[in-house]
Specification:
- By secondary structure, the protein is mostly beta strands.
- The protein has a domain of 153 residues: Immunoglobulin-like (Sandwich).
- Helices cover 5% and strands 49% of the residues.
- The protein is built from two helices and 14 strands, in the order E-E-E-E-E-E-E-H-E-E-H-E-E-E-E-E.
- It has a five-stranded antiparallel sheet, covered by helices on one side. Strands 8-9-5-11-12 form a five-stranded antiparallel sheet. A two-stranded antiparallel sheet has the order 1-2.
- The chain is elongated, with a radius of gyration of 26 Å.
- GO terms for molecular function: collagen binding.
- This is Putative collagen adhesin se73.9.
- Keywords: Collagen.
- It holds the Pfam family Cna_B.
- InterPro entries: Adhesion_dom_sf, Collagen-bd_Cna-like_B-typ_dom, Collagen-bd_dom.
Length: 221
């Protein structure tokens, strides 16, 4: 931006700040994948971590990037501080709005909008957790980008501050790159002296497990 005062001009460069990534920040976004749930990614929006008084509405716009889609039933919203509430499951957004009628959280497959009223946000930390379903299992990482608008009481307005996060895909990046699918061969080896007693079964059943849970049986001859 060029500013002219009298006969003098100067150029001012404005750099848009990015939100912090620690609990001391007013807002940050993070996420991860759990080894026992490799088909979904967990995401967290953490707002007003220090339970500040705010001067006006707090707004967050959260964009879910490619290779994933929002699981609408996965919301887990926690309000802690002056108020202590929790809303879980597919009715979480409706129940949140019923309890805090001046605030609203809306969501589509790839976008979440948060509007927190000044008095609902003040002295409260709001943690919005949700999961996305993976649609591209070979994608190396998943990204979500967000922006926040807020003003702590008696401090400057913050507009469009970014907090973005990337999560490595453990399906593709678990030490090697490649497909999520694994093939294997099962070979029967009998230790019965060529069935000398005539007790060898005609078929055997192989049980297939994933994450300690049986997912299928396969009978082979």
């Amino acid at each position: 931006t060029t500013v002219k005062v009298g006969n003098r001009t100067c150029t001012i460069t404005v750099t848009k700040p990015e939100a912090g990534t620690g609990t001391s920040s007013f807002y940050y976004k993070t996420g991860d994948m759990q080894p026992n749930d490799t088909e979904r990614v967990r995401w967290f929006l953490l707002i007003n971590n220090n339970k500040e008084w705010v001067a006006n509405t707090v707004t967050v716009e959260d964009d879910i990037q490619g290779g994933q889609t929002l699981d609408m039933s996965s919301f887990d919203i926690t309000v802690s501080g002056y108020r202590n509430e929790r809303f879980v499951g597919e009715n979480a957004l409706t129940e949140f709005h019923t309890t805090f009628p001046n605030s609203v959280i809306t969501a589509t497959d790839n976008h979440i909008s948060v509007r927190l009223d000044q008095y609902d946000a003040s002295q409260n930390t709001v943690n919005i957790a949700y999961k996305t379903k993976i649609t591209d299992f070979d994608q190396k990482e998943f990204a979500n980008n967000s922006k926040i608008w807020y003003q702590i009481l008696y401090k400057d307005q913050v507009s469009g501050q970014e907090s973005n996060h990337q999560v490595a895909n453990i399906n593709a990046n678990g030490g090697v790159d490649g497909s999520r699918y694994t093939s294997f061969t099962v070979k029967k080896i009998w230790n019965d002296k060529e069935n000398q007693d005539g007790k060898r079964p005609k078929t055997i059943t192989v049980q297939l497990y994933a994450n300690d849970q049986k997912v299928n049986d396969k009978t082979i001859e």
